[in-house]
């Protein structure tokens, strides 16, 4: 069976800046592919290609085994690829249930005489959140009053509810404390267990390792490799992310200063 998504030696340049060069990875149903790398490593550029916001210049991007070139995020969504961006996931002043149905509101009546079916929307939102184990006091409250972690959880539940096959999360845990990050990672695992292919972008190997099945390491637009969990330990992942040899040299230097 072919992977949900696959990139083969994918590359992308912006003018003279090579943002991505020769990056290969796969996203399978019921698995989490983690994309790790420092600032400017090319993580967002890669997921924007997967999400239809950018087009690759070189290499191949395949959906279920077929080479594609997505022309818009809408096209990606129609093919079941849902992306949750760090800040753009929700409209803060709108209620939780309005956000949940944004762009896909259930309507009553017909054509110009239709109206938003708020009762159904509220009840469906409550049910979908409860199914993911998310217990919100009130779906009327503005999303802006939720914590960062809760917002991410609503966005994840939304993608699951509307039948996404692939869920892409760009640094969902970046601004969160330890406890909240743990909650978000639990929902990432739930989405995985429901059979979605998840792409999780993070700086933090401690967030990636417990949920990840595969780890793509990027550095300055190039791939340092895509490792199955069995082939890389948390220590090695941390070492690679910290800059490996560079960090050891720095540690050595700093120790020298102390003495
Ligand atoms: N639209 C653009 N125009 C020009 N250069 C860009 C554009 N988008 C990204 N780049 C460049 O491509 C490189 C990779 O950027 P990208 O945003 O993919 O990194 P990132 O790994 O997501 O970093 P961060 O962790 O800071 O979010 C950077 O050098 C960036 O300046
Ligand atoms: Mg980024």
Automatic annotation (TrEMBL):
Keywords: ATP-binding, Nucleotide-binding
SMART domains cross-referenced by the UniProt entry: AAA
Source organism, top-level taxon: Bacteria
Gene Ontology terms, MF aspect: ATP binding; ATP hydrolysis activity
Record has Nucleotidyltransferase as a keyword: no
Domain named ABC transporter: residues: 5-245
PANTHER family: CARBOHYDRATE TRANSPORT ATP-BINDING PROTEIN MG119-RELATED (PTHR43790), SUGAR ABC TRANSPORTER ATP-BINDING PROTEIN (PTHR43790:SF8)
Identification of the protein by name: Monosaccharide ABC transporter ATP-binding protein, CUT2 family
Organism the protein comes from: Allokutzneria albata
């Amino acid at each position: 069976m072919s992977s949900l998504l696959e990139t083969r030696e994918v590359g992308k340049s912006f003018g003279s800046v090579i943002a991505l060069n020769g990056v290969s990875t796969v996203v399978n149903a019921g698995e989490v592919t983690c994309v790790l790398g420092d600032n400017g490593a090319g993580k967002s550029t890669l997921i924007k290609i997967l999400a239809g916001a950018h087009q690759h210049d070189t290499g191949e991007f395949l959906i279920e085994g077929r080479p594609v070139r997505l022309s818009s995020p809408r096209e990606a969504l129609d093919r079941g690829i849902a992306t949750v961006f760090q800040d753009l996931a929700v409209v803060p002043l709108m209620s939780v249930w309005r956000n949940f149905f944004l762009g896909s509101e259930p309507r009553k009546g017909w054509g110009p005489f239709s109206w938003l079916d708020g009762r159904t929307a509220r009840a469906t939102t409550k049910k979908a959140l409860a199914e993911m184990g998310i217990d919100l006091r009130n779906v009327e409250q503005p999303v802006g009053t939720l914590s960062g972690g809760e917002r991410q959880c609503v966005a994840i539940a939304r993608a699951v509810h509307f039948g996404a096959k692939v869920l892409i999360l760009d640094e969902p845990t970046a601004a969160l404390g330890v406890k909240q990050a743990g909650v978000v990672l639990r929902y990432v695992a739930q989405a995985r267990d429901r059979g979605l292919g998840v792409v999780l972008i993070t700086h933090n190997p401690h967030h990636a390792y417990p949920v990840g099945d595969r780890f793509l390491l990027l550095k300055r637009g190039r791939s340092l490799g895509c490792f199955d969990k069995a082939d890389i330990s948390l220590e090695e992942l941390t070492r690679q992310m910290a800059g490996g040899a560079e960090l050891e040299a720095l540690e050595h230097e700093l120790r020298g200063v102390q003495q």
